[in-house]
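Quick one:
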Amino acid sequence: GGGGGGGGGGPRPWRPSWGKGGFKGGWKGGWGGKGWGGGGRNVRFEVRNPESTVWVGSLPEGLTFTELKAHMSQVGEVRHAQITSGNTGFVWFKEAEAAQSAVSTLNGSECKGSAIVVDPWTKKEKNP
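Output:
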């Protein structure tokens, strides 16, 4: 007997959510096709609520967005945290008050051994 289908009980391999139907047919054209330029570094964080968003800098190497979210949630509910290139990132809070509190409370705080910078989110606008 013994039915099957299991993968041996170990951890299952990671599968991207965009791979609908799996990889049965291969990549059909490989990596040389359209849309792969930039290697994922071009993911942009779109700020819809600047008053409840903060910029964070001097993040320690290897920090995950989950760890950043946990650190920033000391001052309020975090809706989204994203780490971008150059050891910087963005954190979007549920409430604008939490973002203001993060700037005053967590700027200079230690996160995994690094003193991080927390600043209000400001759009980079050209001065008139």
